[in-house]
Amino acid sequence: MALIGAAAVVYGVPSASAGEAAAGETAPVAEVRSSGATAADDHPAKSSADPVLSGKRRITIVRVGSFESGLSLLDGGRLTEVDDDRGRQVFVPTPLGSGEYLIKAYYGGGTGKPVCWQAHNPGDSQPLFVRGAACRADDPAQRFVVAAVPAGGPREYLISNRWAYLRDSARSGLILEELGDAPPVSSFRFNDAGPAPRRR
User: Fold this and answer.
1) Is residue 109 situated within a structural domain?
2) Who's near 139: CB < 8 A, 6+ residues apart?
3) DSSP notation for 102-148
4) Which first-to-last residue range defines the signal peptide (predicted)?
């Protein structure tokens, strides 16, 4: 009993029984482990566990801080923000492994054959942007990384392709830009819109 009492003093729990003392001994270990975790450590777990990233849910995407605008992949054009029903505004992030996703784009309700997001370099010193293309999981330009924002809101994510992050530009709209040591300036909210269309 003297040993149990000593353990109770060390771990700060009452020593009513040996069972309670043993329970008290395990708590500080769990606290140390959790306090040693970082936001980067739990990003993959948070992202992969979210149903909207399972490939089985369709979503809409809104840039955090935008007003009444959602992302849309315009026909024959690029990814932009709209406040009407133009283009493909329903998306299905389909996991490819290692935190990468093929982002399929559909018309409202998830109808028609999808096209996929593709990073595009227009040249002439113009910024990279996202356009639509036939889906190809082996194309690096279509493999987007989706990562939870540290201390962000529910289903708030950063989107990037080969270190170029999707962000809003006052001059060029939605672009992909390598940020170097600067933090990403745009994050995006994924809103669950129901079951994904049947695989095509």
Assistant:
1) yes
2) 118, 133
3) EEEEEETTTEEEEEEEEEE---TTPPBEEEEE---TT-GGG-EEEEE
4) 1-18
Question: Going residue by residue through the chain (200 aa), what tens digit of pLDDT does each one get?
Answer: 443 343 333 333 333 333 333 333 333 323 322 233 333 333 344 455 899 999 999 999 999 999 879 999 999 889 999 999 999 999 999 999 999 999 999 998 888 899 999 999 998 889 999 999 999 999 999 999 999 999 899 999 999 999 999 999 999 999 999 988 778 889 999 999 999 998 65
- Specify the CATH number for the domain of residue 78: 2.80.10.50
- Domain with 82 in it: 51-194
First to last CA, the chain: 68
Beta carbons of 119 and 128 less than 8 angstroms apart: yes
Domain count, the chain: 1
| Whole-prediction pTM | 0.74
Q: Which SS3 state, helix, strand or coil, does residue 150 take? A: coil
Residue 19 lies in a domain: no
Q: Which two tokens stand for residue 157?
A: 């994510």
